[in-house]
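Please check what follows.
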Amino acid sequence: MILITPRRTHSYTCYVFQASNAAGSDTSRVRLEVCADEAPTGEDPPTFLRRLQDLTVKVGTRTRFLVEIVSSTECKGIHD
């Protein structure tokens, strides 16, 4: 295993690895591109993927409201 610690974003390096023994050798090439960290920062607001829909129901009927939210951190739900 080779540990590589990139130092700058938006840079790339090509690596060539070669292994050999008495029977011969083989080569593998790889390009390593360094991107910005995209870990959740908690700075993005939650986004509704599926919003609440208005419903009309009969008295005493059970119903369910479905909503789908994506968020980089844990959300709290509020209803009134």
